[in-house]
Specification:
By secondary structure, the chain is mainly α. It has one domain: Rhopdopsin 7-helix transmembrane proteins (Up-down Bundle). Helices cover 76% and strands 0% of the residues. It has helices at 2-20, 39-69, 76-100, 109-143, 148-151, 154-175, 177-181, 199-236, 244-283, 285-288, 291-315, 317-327. It is globular and about 75 Å long.
């Protein structure tokens, strides 16, 4: 009788565990539980995120090839776009891991978990820093046009980009020091991927990666906007006949204003996509949000990486032209790097 009761108890326990759907059924009570969602919702999410990931990787790879290959595109501003495209390209790959953890289970071990989180933090910080550099570039181009060729050179921009990535990696190494030394130390069950940053370090990170940079971006672009408006009014008030030199000057101003507008759109979209993530960090997502909402906020950050090259395609004729040359394989022809792209 006792044996029968025990057998029934084991059977009921196993059945209950099957219904719960553990990440690692063989580990029983030490395994994390899968997120319970309708099959149709899970499939739709898989398809959506997979499509975004593929589009993000493909489009940003086109941007990287375009700016790297064609000599005429080796301008300081485009080098900053290249840095942004590199970070967006890696975001596309990181989305593959986000797709895997849709069900709430991490299957790649503690070391891959911390590597995934570490790279994600570095890429996000580098993207924010690159946006600051883009804002500075546009500020100097619009507000100090006579000094732009001397102040903003390819060499200086390359150094700034390298410092941007190095400082991002160094900062995240300090913030995630405990997690890097002992991966998985904060996991409560098998199948979880959790990193924890202490309160003081979290405040420093939010200030350096969010409040400080975003304040700089907004202030600089407000100044750019005011100067751009004054330039536009000045050009409208001087529509009479000019000398060739004056005509060229007006054309140059229009080109700079158009570039400022295009990059302004990139920055505004970036702020709209990444602000919810940092706002959640400021308010405490563990308290206010469930796992699904937190995942949505993270995916919104990823989605921005897909939008950037779409914006380039809409605003930059050179990007559309380079796509045609790449797709038709004309880029493989000798001397293609010298093609006129502007």
């Amino acid at each position: 009788m006792t044996s029968t009761a025990a057998s029934c108890l084991v059977f009921l326990t196993m059945k209950k565990l099957e219904e719960v759907e553990l990440c690692f059924p063989e580990l029983l009570n030490s395994s994390c539980r899968k997120a319970v969602r309708p099959h149709s919702v899970s499939m739709l999410t898989y398809i959506l995120l997979s499509s975004i990931s593929l589009i993000t990787v493909t489009l940003n790879l086109l941007v990287i090839i375009s700016i790297s290959h064609f000599k005429q595109l080796h301008t300081p501003t485009n080098l900053l776009l290249l840095s942004l495209a590199v970070s967006d390209f890696f975001v596309g790959f990181l989305m593959c891991f986000q797709i895997v953890v849709i069900e709430g289970c991490w299957f790649f071990g503690d070391h891959m978990c911390i590597l995934y989180q570490y790279l994600g933090y570095i890429i996000t910080a580098a993207s924010v820093a690159t946006m600051v550099l883009i804002s500075v570039d546009r500020y100097v181009a619009i507000c100090e046009p006579l000094h732009y060729p001397n102040k903003v050179t390819q060499k200086r921009v390359k150094i700034c980009i390298c410092l941007c990535w190095i400082c991002s990696a160094f900062l995240q190494t300090l913030l995630l020091k405990d997690n890097l030394e002992q991966p998985g130390r904060y996991n409560s069950c098998f199948g979880e991927c959790v990193v924890v940053i202490n309160y003081i370090a979290g405040l420093v990170d939010i200030f350096l990666s969010f409040i400080g940079p975003f304040t700089v971006i907004i202030v600089l672009y407000m100044k750019v906007f005011l100067v751009a408006v004054s330039h536009a009014r000045a050009m409208r008030s001087h529509t009479a006949a000019f000398s060739l030199k004056s005509s060229v000057s007006v054309t140059a101003k229009k080109s700079e204003l158009k570039a400022a507008r295009s990059l302004g759109v990139v920055i505004v979209v970036f702020l709209m996509c990444i602000c919810p993530y940092y706002c959640v960090a400021l308010t405490g997502q563990d308290i206010l949000l469930n796992a699904s909402t937190a995942t949505f906020v993270i995916c919104l950050v990823y989605f921005n990486s897909c939008l950037n090259p779409v914006i380039y395609a809409f605003f930059y004729p050179w990007f559309r032209k380079s796509i045609k040359l790449i797709v038709t394989l004309k880029i493989l022809q000798p001397g293609s790097y010298a093609t006129n792209m502007l």
